Amino acid sequence: SASPPNPRQSAAPRSDDAPMVEGHGVHRVAASARRHLVGKRFTATSPNGRFAHGAEVIDGKELKRVDAIGKNLFYFFNEAEGPDAHVMHVHFGMSGRFSTHHTLPGPEPGATTRLRLESREHGICALLSAMTVELGDIGLFQTKRAKLGEDPLREDADADRLWEKFTRSRKSVGLALMDQAMFAGVGNIYRAEILYKAGVHPEQPCADLTRSAFDEVWRHSVELLQRGFVTGSILTVDPDEAKTLGEPWTRRYVYNQRSCGRCGSAVRTWDMAARTVYCCEVCQPLVKSETSDGASAAVRIKGARDHVPFVSHCAAESPGTLAAEPEKLTVAKLK
After folding, report:
1. Is 83 helix (H, G, I), strand (E, B) or coil?
2. For the chain, how are helix, strand and coil distributed in percent, rounded to 5?
3. Which H/E stretch holds residue 64?
4. Could you tell me the strand order of the sheet in which 43-45 lies?
5. pLDDT of 227-241, one tens digit each?
6. What are the start-end ranges of the E strands in the chain?
7. Predicted pLDDT of residue 12
8. What residues form DSSP beta bridges with 278?
9. 175 φ/ψ angles, rounded to the nearest 5 degrees
10. pLDDT tens track for 261-272
11. pLDDT at 291
């Protein structure tokens, strides 16, 4: 299977002050932290009081290690591993941020800022807001790690282990891609684009996939998340094809698209476990299942509708797309 360059060794921007929705963004934050924060001691405070005890524990402790697994970050203070490590687990949720600033005192913390780190010696501070910020020992990391699946951005990801889970799963491929115990780090936008590029219908049962079809899903997962890590954006259309397809398909194939750029068919959407799934039913045909009667999938697909584009705050559009499809513009940009 494909293997990306190691994000642990890649350069990262000085500040990643952007919403963390998919795994590539979390890995960018981790890479930035390794570059600018690891090896330093910080004065730690909790501006909104929601991480007061944790801040007190890590105050003055050296940050030894930062690890990213899927959408989860782990900061190791005092020790990189072992019984004396203080491990801070972070999950951003839909709108968390971790920003690093190289001028003190830095921006004022906001109402959601749970942790502020400052090093006067190095002239650096960092602000964290996230859905989950918890502190524990090495056992916390080991417990969380055991529950997470294969992260396409990690060198230790094991596609064979994931394939074994697929062969035993009763889920659809669309559900599996969003299951962090199987694919760690894939979110809704990447799900839509990975399955489109692999030519797999979201409702296809996992157990129906051949090994070669599974390998295509994994390959695109690795390639697209790695591209996201490098660019900082969810860009799934291959550069040469973007030139051929033109707007509005220069960044994404089916996510928030009215029609398929390749065949012209309407992009269809329906609900899958309370999330919207996107599909071109021509380029991603649902193959008759060998393992399921397909009754539940048929009910969901019956409720499918032609997609109407909306303003997405998770995936920026190109200026050309916004000019061609004003329904994707925010109110501020319309003004």
Report:
1. coil
2. 35, 20, 45
3. strand 63-69
4. 43-45, 115-119, 124-129, 97-101
5. 999 999 999 999 999
6. 43-45, 63-69, 72-77, 86-91, 97-101, 115-119, 124-129, 132-136, 268-272, 275-279, 305-306
7. 42
8. 269
9. -70, -40
10. 999 999 999 999
11. 80
